[in-house]
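Q: Could you write out the predicted structure for this multi-component system? I'm mainly interested in how the pieces pack against one another.
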Amino acid sequence: MRNGVFAKLCCLVFAAFMLAPIVVVVGVSFTPTGFLEFPPSGISLRWFRAILDAPEFIEGGWISLKLGVISATLAAVIAVPAALAIGRGRFRGREALLALFMSPLMVPTVVLGIAFLRFLTVVGLSGTFTGLALCHAVIILPFVLRLVLASISGLDRATERAAESLGAGGWTVFRRVTLPAIVPGILGGWVLAFITSFDELTVSVFIVNPSTTTLPVRLYSHIAQTTDPLVASVSTVTILFTVVLMIVVDRFYGLDRLLIGEGKK
Amino acid sequence: MAFLELHGLTKRYGTITAVDSMTLNVEKNSFVSLLGPSGCGKTTTLQMVAGFETPTEGRILLNGRDLSAIPARERGLGIVFQSYALFMHMTVAENVAFGLEMRKVGKAERARRVAAALDLVHLSHLADRYPRAMSGGQRQRVALARALVIEPELLLLDEPLSNLDAKLREEMQLELRRIQREAGVTTLMVTHDQSEALAMSDRVVVMERGHLRQEDAPFEVYEQPGSLFVSNFLGKSNVYDARLIAADATGSRLVVAGREIAGPAGVTLPPGDVALVLRPERVEVVAPDAALIEGRVIERIFFGNQWLLRAGTPFGEMLISRRNSGRAEAAVGDRIGLGWEAHHIRVLPREEARA
Ligand SMILES: Nc1ncnc2c1ncn2[C@@H]1O[C@H](COP(=O)(O)OP(=O)(O)OP(=O)(O)O)[C@@H](O)[C@H]1O
Ligand SMILES: [Mg+2]
């Protein structure tokens, strides 16, 4: 490999930039002092204990968890038929439809946030959990759609034809052959969508109200007022949760397949 | 009335005519191969019989019944796809049982028939495996068992052996033929491998660019090709431009490269420009005084059981294939005498070179 050294250097720099903030946050959360210090002057679980005395974070965590599960599920339910139509169909406007579903990735999130705020007011859902979940579903739909589309395009059409030739009707073919083959894609997309929803901030800031404040919004407003290591310990717990989730996904599905679309051999 | 009949079957995709008025009769219990180069319309023909493509024109009759209004899932045909198309999330036994489940066959009966089908393809010991943990040859057999277990009237095979390596392919050719005989099922197979078609079939159908070029028993298509295309596609051929000057029931006379030679009897073409075809295995290396022409060896290839010589001759280059008799063959640069018997020559109409 000719440009091996340069490529390696790039990877190293990239990894450093990705990992450094995490290392800092995790480090800071173990500080025994009352301020953000890195490296920490000692090891203490003081700020982890403090989470237990901060019900707003625990509640925010529950809201984010519930929101993630509901909106990711909603997105998956929409994405599967959409992906089947887009991936299989030969109708006019296929491309346009795909672009529409993917557009939340393109539109600046601040713009989306303002638009959702207005929209929810108009339809009378402003400040509700339902409204929040709907907006999250829209934002995370592209992630599920992309993975389901990938798994559909990787599906051998002949397997469905084989089932058909053996006497299976349309619905049976879908239930017994197509769906099982794309389940990994759906699950992968669901997890990616869940994580995206779980730490979504920009749009949420616009549309939460005090009873639906998510964890990221909580953290954000906490930082705006004080800077104690509590944010670091909450973040560390969140990171741990995400890492565990990733490990579980990797066990059952393969992370490389989730993120790159390549199968585990 | 034949068991399967194709009448003027045509399929057009826009301006492309993939299959052009195919008419073919397949007898019950026979094994018929559709053979031809890539893109000649073999798969399209098979897909129309299967019911996955709708013919633009023409009819398909199975056992006297018109198939056009019958959807694929009700045709009851056994199909083995080139990719095998196994259900990867089901075990071998579940794969095979699928068609019986769809037919609402009872549990005990299902188990019995799955076992019998797996036994037929020698896979009983792998019933609980998943396809991903199997070799290509094993997967191929699962696909076959899955197609046969429903006791189809007709078995359709699309290049069933093309994903296997050469050695396994030869084994599976015999195996597939045995299974087909034991199951007693009429079979239509698509292949672009001429030796496979010759070895396995009762009848070979040679296709070219959507057209049926010749349909015959394997020995006949090989020995009596109706056209240069068929002759070149099946095995190797030496082809030379020649002029037919006389022909009757006892023999014929041809002029090649200014030399007059004897040709076969029974040539029905009118005198004039023709193509002379001579198979490499019909050319003999003979003593110079008995030779019809002389040649100089340009290349010599050893295949184990035989040699292939390429020689420069007055006619042009000639391929000569020789059985390995244990003695060293003529070497590159050697002058050799070449001869053949007049009845081994085939005289065919000239064809324009095709792109
Ligand atoms: N869905 C389609 N749309 C347009 N053209 C098609 C379609 N399917 C096949 N064709 C064309 O029809 C012709 C015949 O295709 P077919 O797949 O039957 O060939 P084949 O003989 O099976 O070739 P191969 O040996 O490569 O599998 C080809 O020229 C192909 O490009
Ligand atoms: Mg084909």
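A: Regarding packing and overall arrangement: Residues B 42-43 surround magnesium ion (ligand 2) (CB under 6 Å).
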